[in-house]
Amino acid sequence: MQTSIENKVFLKKAEKVAFDLEHRAKIKYNIGKYDVAVKKGKAIFKDLNKARNRAGFVKYKVINDLEKYLIQFENNFLKNGGKIIWAKTEGEAIKEIQKLLKERNVKTVVKSKSMITEEIELNRALEKKKIEVVETDLGEFIVQQAGQKPYHIVTPAMHLSKEDIASLYHEKFNTPEDLNPTELTNYTRKKLRKKFVTADAGITGANFLIADMGAIALTENEGNGLMSMSFPKLHIAIAGIEKIIPRLEDLDLYWPLLSTHGTGQLLTAYKSIISGPRKPGEKDGPEEMFLILLDNGRTNLLSKERQRQALSCIRCGACLNVCPVYKNIGGHTYNTTYSGPIGAVITPHLKDFKTYKHLSFASTLCGACTEVCPVGIPLHELLLFNRKEAVDNGYYTYFEKKSNDVSTFALSSRKRLDMVGGGFKNWAMNLTVKKAWGPRRDLPKMAPKSFAQLWKEQGMGEEDE
After folding, report:
1. Pair 377, 365: CB distance under 8 Å
2. Based on the domain organization, do 73 and 166 belong to the same domain?
3. Is residue 465 very low, low, confident or very high in pLDDT (cuts 50, 70, 90)?
4. What domain range includes position 34?
5. What is the pLDDT of residues 219-274, one digit of tens each?
6. CA distance 346 to 302
């Protein structure tokens, strides 16, 4: 595996964050609360495995017939008065959005939580054009004020304590330093209300695209998504092409799975189905609605016979919360929009495989991610397919190849292993493995004699070769 700059940055950050005890305490506390809630939330299912299998089957069927469902969705969405813009890359998406905003003289944009806008770095692109962009989800608003990226797919400010946030607000807004969470939330609500009313445009993501209805489904807990769509004259939604579900009735399956696995709630507080702009006689809603359907590497992933199943992901974040690697190194270490196991599977295909292949190797392959996935994606297996692809493409160093050749030669024969004593083995291990083992761990010592040698000395059997 050749070492990219991204890999070096990843290893450096992981080394630092993994041994930050304060960070670990915050994550342990927040994920601990999540674990309790999710256990309670899952109790609503009479047969959770049956629901997961059905959800996975439907999503995977859509992925394999994606063209058909996209055409059906487009036809129905256009009939409802919406307009669709197809974007091959993030550059195309940004260009089209900037064009729409410029033509309508938009100066202020309110945004509901959207990972896909993080993926294309929309905020930065609009701010360069002197357009004010305001994140209206509480967690997103917090990380925006901190100048950070989201830490987690669902809970973007998971890495911050209430004391951290109170200190941030004091620095940014000159509020008292000891505000409690309720006071911080009330202050944010009051500040954002003015933005909703005066914004020229609202931008949202979409949790699902409903093919037979030609509508988007949006799930959130604070009502900010609803207001981002309702008050401004222009609503722009952005979604990946993989977000399709076949029927409106399928939400009866996906919404409970998303809420219980995402936050432990029985149902998320606010659920909206938007089929287009405001109709004649309606009092609320935008005058215009555009939907950006984004590829941005998704067809690369779709071309993979096995890894394409990852496009079934409903972005609940459950795999992050159980991953021992994520819980130790945190979301920012990945330096990608999608972190944790799902990010490690899809990011190399959405971006540059050679540059981001290291993410697929940053896993214990324990399988916990696969066990909790609400749509049954075999994530740990897909990580192995990514690793194989990296090796097949020759993305490894000369030293790594020779190390594998030598270890394979030595480990394939007990007689060869026992030709040298423990002292030589320890010397060889220190020479070849110690650096990779890490400076914070002691390299285990080889015993002077192997178990096979001791067994033979006791007259218990012949040495295997």
Report:
1. no
2. yes
3. very low
4. 1-44+311-396
5. 999 999 999 999 999 999 999 999 999 999 999 999 999 999 999 999 999 999 99
6. 10
